[in-house]
Amino acid sequence: MVKKNKVKRTGDDEAISLGTMLRTSPRKLNLVASLIRQKSVGDALNLLSFSSKRISSEVKKILQTAIANAENNHQLDVDKLFVSRVDVGKSITMKRWRARARGRVGKIIKPFSRLTIIVKEEKLDHVDQKTQSSVNKGKIENKAKDSTKNVKSTKKESTKTTTESQKTDSSKSKDSETKEGKT
Hints:
There is one protein chain. About 50% of the residues lie in helices and about 25% in strands. By secondary structure, the chain is an alpha+beta fold. It folds into two domains: about 15-95 and about 105-120, CATH 3.90.470.10; about 125-180. Strands 1-3-2 form a three-stranded antiparallel sheet. Helix 2 (about 40-50) runs antiparallel to helix 3. The radius of gyration is 34 Å and the shape is elongated. The termini are far apart.
């Protein structure tokens, strides 16, 4: 039974690029792919340019293809693009043999991977929500700082009042002892 190829549908605000037969294991490719997930395309290209991983140059080419698809096929603004999804999958595995001692062989496995990059144009609402959430976090942090200041000041005041009351109690007890001693 033959599998039907699924047609990947992209929205109006996104573009896709596929890389098949990348000569690395999916595990190693996923390390590089995790660098660029949810980043703007400018930041992602910068990260891939300075990455020390061998496969990062191939990932960079696929990302540039996705950017070109977005610009030419979907008329999206390149400055607003971000990497919305990066999928890493397993492709074929080549098997080779190496002669070993006493007539045995050692298996050499050469894995290949697939990579799918989807870039999407940021909406203004999406950006506003991010900035609004960061503003709200700042307000919460300020409130937390104010409340800790209030707690500290009340602790200081309460310790002052307790020490003053202890002093007055101790002076009263000394006075009562001296009165008892005199009689």
